[in-house]
From TrEMBL:
Organism domain of life: Bacteria
Co-factor binding comment: Binds 1 FAD per subunit.
Top-rank EC class of the record's enzyme: oxidoreductase
Protein name: Ferredoxin--NADP reductase
Catalytic reactions on record: 2 reduced [2Fe-2S]-[ferredoxin] + NADP(+) + H(+) = 2 oxidized [2Fe-2S]-[ferredoxin] + NADPH
Swiss-Prot/TrEMBL cofactor(s): FAD
EC number: 1.18.1.2
Binding site for FAD: 16, 35, 43, 48, 88, 121, 282, 323
The protein's assembly and partners: Homodimer.
This protein's record includes keyword NADP: yes
UniProt-listed Pfam families: Pyr_redox_2
Length: 329
């Protein structure tokens, strides 16, 4: 497969990349999809799989993980050459195609569509030496499997919307939930703050976690320290660190793409400043840009149609409607 030149290689399997994959298939393009994460879905899978989304057209309310599952089903129509757990590093232009280099191999492609979202993202950590010993076992940066927290003493760190949402959601099934914030004011929406205050969640402010005690990956206790050095030790079976994410364009920064505040500048055709390289979704910026799932869905067909006309100038820019492409049964 590596030697085969595909029509488009899509970098990033979030909602924009997945919908672009389907659209490329509908436009009869061969497509390769690469994501550095082990699972498809981008931010929806990584950051909020169990949250309801309310602002995707046609879905009054849908769980992020269910939207991803629908998108994956839809993308399969294109029969993409799928590469997960593989990070795109660099590219080289040959006569009529690109050689795309990842940390695991080289791939040939006529066009490139970057749907890399906020870039390869990583959760912001507490910064304690032994933090990594507990990661994935009793220390999480996102809530993926609610059952993990059933009947557990859960501690949530953070003061933003996500931290408060998780605290509220988990108090229904956990044995106890304690919300610890390093400041005495929350950045979360005031209605969430009020809901937490009215709930059984125990709130502790102006405290930092300065030590994690436990062994074999299992947390036992946390040491919380105030500014004046006063310490408090609390019990914890599960710790959720919700300090947000650090995202970085990483290797894509070296491509010579025109950037504005870490986003790739595109024109109305979703073309970057490099011929044959397109971008869509959260990674892009242009006048009037809003970063939403719905806008990524709008940008995908534009990017794909212009990518097709880049290597096949005779192709129709305006796609046929799906109602005409597919059999009505
Ligand atoms: C907590 C939270 C709640 C949200 N709620 C909503 C909501 O209610 N409604 C809404 O519209 N939006 C919401 N959003 C925003 C929404 O998630 C984003 O707009 C959407 O995920 C953007 O999709 P995308 O496909 O462009 O990028 P992403 O979802 O970020 O996917 C990009 C993918 O590219 C991959 N990637 C990056 N660099 C590379 C590389 N070099 N090589 C290989 N792969 C790479 C990443 O691993 C990632 O999987 C929310 C975001 C958060 C954090």
């Amino acid at each position: 497969m590596k030697d085969e030149i595909v029509d488009v290689t899509i970098i990033g399997g979030g909602p924009t990349g997945l919908f672009s994959t389907f659209y490329a298939g509908m436009r009869q393009m061969s497509v390769r999809l690469i994501d550095s994460l082990p699972e498809l879905g981008g931010q929806l899978t990584e950051l909020y799989p169990d949250k309801y989304i309310y602002d995707v057209g046609g879905f009054p309310k849908i769980l992020a993980k269910d939207l991803v599952s629908n998108l994956v089903t839809q993308a399969q129509y294109a029969e993409p050459d799928l590469h997960l757990g593989e990070t795109v590093q660099s590219y080289e232009r040959k006569d009529d195609h690109f050689v795309l280099k990842t940390d695991q191999g080289e791939y040939l492609t006529r066009t490139i569509l970057i749907t890399a979202g906020v870039g390869a993202f990583q959760p912001r950590k507490i910064g304690l030496d032994n933090e990594a010993d507990f990661e994935g076992i009793s220390l999480q940066y996102a809530v993926r499997d609610l059952e993990k927290f059933r009947d557990q003493d859960v501690v949530v760190l953070g003061g933003g919307d996500s931290a408060l949402d998780w605290a509220l959601m988990l108090q229904e099934l956990a044995k106890s939930v304690t919300l610890v914030h390093r400041r005495n004011r929350f950045t979360a929406h005031e209605t969430s703050v009020q809901q937490v205050m009215d709930s059984p969640v125990e709130v502790k402010t102006s405290l930092n976690v300065t030590e994690i005690k436990g062994e074999n990956g299992q947390i036992d206790e946390l040491v919380l320290t105030a500014k004046d050095g006063t310490e408090e030790v609390i019990k914890a079976d599960q710790l959720i660190v919700n300090f947000g994410n650090i995202s970085s364009l990483g290797p894509l920064k070296e491509w010579g793409l025109e950037l504005e505040k870490n986003s790739i500048k595109v024109n109305a055709h979703m073309e970057t400043n490099i011929l044959g390289i397109f971008a869509a979704g959260d990674i892009t910026t242009f006048e009037g840009k809003v970063k939403l799932i719905a806008t990524g869905f709008g940008e995908a067909p534009v990017a794909i149609s212009y990518a097709k006309s880049f290597y096949d100038p005779k192709s129709r820019l305006q796609p046929k409607h799906s109602t005409s492409v597919f059999k009505q049964d």
